[in-house]
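W.,

You were right to be curious about this one. When I first looked at the sequence I had no strong expectations either way, so I just let the prediction run and decided to look at it fresh. Below is the sequence, 441 residues in total, followed by the output.
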Amino acid sequence: MIKRKRGLIAAGFVSAFTALTFIWTPSLLAKSDTNDTVSKLEALSKFTRVIGTIEKYYVDDLTINQIIEKAIKGLMTNLDAHSSFLDAKSFKEMKIQTSGEFGGLGVTVGMRDGALTVIAPLEGTPAYKAGLKSGDIILKIDDKSTLNMTLDEAVSLMRGKPKTKITLTIVRKNEPKPIVVTIVRDIIKIKSVYTKKIGNDILYIRVVSFDKKVVTDVKRALNENPHAKGLIIDLRNNPGGLLDQAVGMVDLFVDKGVIVSQKGRIKEENQVYKAHSKGTYKNIPIVVLVNGGSASASEIVSGSLQDHRRAVIVGEKTFGKGSVQIIMPINKKEALRLTIARYYLPSGRTIQAVGVTPDINVSFGKVTVEESHFSLKESQLKEHLKGELEKINGKNGEKEKKGPKPAKENIITTKELYNDNQLKEGADILRALIIIQEKRK
C-alpha cells in the first residue's frame, strides 16, 4: 500500500484472506456545458422511466431501494471485473476483515470472462493443501452457483469461522467432469519469503505474496549470501499485494529510471515511481519465474525488470491484472469499489488483460531424462558391489554407524530441480549468465 494524503492503495486482488483499505475522494463530477447537461437530464429521465416501469409491472413486489440497489450492482459489474457495489452487509464484513483475524481458505480469486477463477492458492494454506490450482473455475460454493455472483459475494461466502467446512465445485482444464473439494477454513498466516540455494553459487528466493516485509526479507537474504553469483526470484502463483513492496523490490536491482507509473482520468491519481541508485544490487544476474497465477504486484516486478533488461523472465504468461481500485464510501453503510487507474510498465505497455509474456516460455512439468540400463557412477558402483559381496558372504551384521547428515531443507536438490522444469530451465539460464559475466571481468 502507498501512503498518501487521500488514503491507501493496494496492488492486489480481492481474496478470501487479504484486507482492503478505505479512501475518501471528492466528487468525480466535472463542470458540463449546456448540451452535456441536456444529455444527462435525458439519460436520467430514461433511467427514471425504467425504474417506474419495473416498480409498477414487475412480477415481484420490489421497493424503490431494492430496484436502485440492483441497478447499481448491475452498473458496477458491467464497468469491469474489479469494480463493485458494497451493500451494508458487504461493507461491514470488509471493515471486520481489515480490523482483525478471520477464517479463510488462503486462495486469491478474480473474475475472468465472467467466471469466478482461482488466481493462486497461497502455500501452506487450506486451499493449497486441498489441491486448488491456478486457473480453476469455481462453479459452486457449497450449494450456491457462482454464475451471476459478484466477486464480493463469492469472497463473503468463502470467508467464515475457523475450523468450519466449505465445499467448492471446481471445473479444471483437461478434467472430464467437475471436481468437488471440501476445505476446512483456518486463520490465514503467510510466510511471504522463502530462501534456498541451488549448489553453492545460486540464491533462490520464493516470494509468495507482497506483504509489508518483503523488501526487508529479500535484502536480508542478499546480505546473508554475499557470495551468491546469481539470483532466481520465484513469483509463480504470487497474486500480488502491496504496491510499495513491488516498487521497493525492483528498486533493489535497478539504479535509475521509471519502475512503474499509475495513470487515470483524475490527475491527482497519476503517479510515477522511480528507481534510486543507493543500495542497488546491479551486478548480480537474475532470472524471474512466473506463471498464470502471477498477478498484479508480481507482474509489476517481473515486467519492470524485463523492461529494464535486468532479468530474464522464464515460465508462462502472467494473469494480466494491472488496474487500481479504491474504496469510496457513498454513505455510512455503503460504498463503491471503483477502478480509477491502470499501471504502466517503464516501456509504456499496460499489464491489464495482457499480462507479462516471458522471455523464454516453459510449461510446468518434470524434466524427462533418458536413463541408461546401467548408470552407476564409479563411487556408487563400489558401494553397490561391496553390498552384493556381503550378501554372498552372509554378512548381514550391524550397519556402519554414520554421523548426522547436514541439513538439506535450505538446499534445492537435483531431484527437486528435475521435478520442476521451469526452475531447472531458470537455473541453467542463470548459470550461462554467470559464465558470461565472469568472462567479461
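Here's what jumped out at me. Residues 34-57 form the longest helix (24 residues). And, maybe more interesting for your project: Confidence is low (pLDDT under 50) at residues 1-9, 12-30, 397-407.

Coffee later to discuss?

I.
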